[in-house]
Amino acid sequence: MLPPSALRLLPGGVGARIVPARPQTHESASRRPGLAELLRRDPLPGVLVVDSRLDAIDLLILRELQQDGRLSIVDLAQRVGLSPSPCLRRVRHLEERRVIAGYRALLDPQAIGLGLQAFVSFRVESHDRAQLERLRATIAGMPEVLASYSVSGDVDAMLHVAVPDLAAFERFIGEKLLTLPVRDLRSSFVIAVRKPPGPLPLDHLEAAAAGGAQEP
What we know:
The chain is of the alpha+beta class. The protein has helices at 26-29, 35-41, 56-67, 73-80, 84-96, 129-140, 166-176, 203-214, and strands at residues 7-10, 17-20, 116-124, 145-150, 157-163, 182-189.
């Protein structure tokens, strides 16, 4: 049996296969690449490789903007210890790299009459690629759907839905969702929001940045 070091996982969807890796030369064996480098060479499906160019100041900027996206560059620069010009360059660079994907206002659903939220899961009728793409595009165009996820387990997808009331929810299910090639719908209603969606955690990146800063 081949040792783990001689195996390499190749992307292949459900039928992913393992094949022997190429024999190592003396030169290649002397330097073992890290996981991030391996993934950059041959990324696996669904695996996001963290950009190693994020340093401690970038992470400070991200933390501050997640808390308040309306900060002026002057205020942001003061908080992260930069002058405005280099701070602006960093923000623009983060936007260009899509680390900062956008800015938006967060509305209170109750204040705008969206009194009912639910999570709706379902299975798809077919896994035909073209049909799935049409299904995803249709769901993406539904204003009631706040978020749509492909998930593992006994269902294929889960939707986060917000509507004014139960009557509106019934219309959404009957007039929209059930007209699509889906089955086995299940709904769970939100009783109370104990913690609303908030800033993404950055601690794991800060630890990595600190570790990298200590290397020679």
